[in-house]
Task: structure prediction
Amino acid sequence: MTKDYELTLLLPFQDQDSKREEMLNTINNIIQNHKGKLKDSVSPYETSLGYSIKGQNKAFLTVISFSSEPEELIQIEKDLKERKEILRYFLNKKNLKKVFRFPVFKNKDSNKVELKDIDKKIEEIFNTPPEISKKVSEINEEEISKEIDKKR
Result:
C-alpha cells in the first residue's frame, strides 16, 4: 500500500540553472527508480542559511511530494545520502487525516478572583504587614494622577 511522503531539500546555491535542474532530475529519478510516483514539487527558491552548511551561506530550498511503498523508502533515503551535492534533506510522511485544532477555553465567572484576595495572598507570601504596603484594591485613578502631578 503506497503512502504519501514529502522530501524537503537544501541544494547548494549556484548561478547556473542547468546544474540545479540536473540535480532535481537526478533526485526525481531516484524516487521513480524505487517505484515512487511524483505528485507535486515547489520550484527551488533562494534562501539564506542560519549557519554555514558545507561552506555555503545560501541555498536553494525545494519540496517534492511523492507516493511510495514504505519498503522502498529505505532505498530512496540510502540513495539520497550518497548524493554529496545535497546539503540537507528531510523526509517525512504526509498525514492528511490528522488536523490539529486549538482547544477553546470558555470564560467562567466562577473562577474569578477578587483583588482583595490577591492582596491577602501576596501579604502571606512576602510576610508584609498591611499597614506598610498599600493594597492594590484601594488604589484609584485620582490618587495615581495626584502622585504623577507631584513628581512633575
Q: What stands out?
A: The chain has a mean pLDDT of 81. Helices lie at 17-33, 70-82, 115-126, 141-151. The first strand starts at residue 3 and ends at 12. The chain has four helices and five strands.
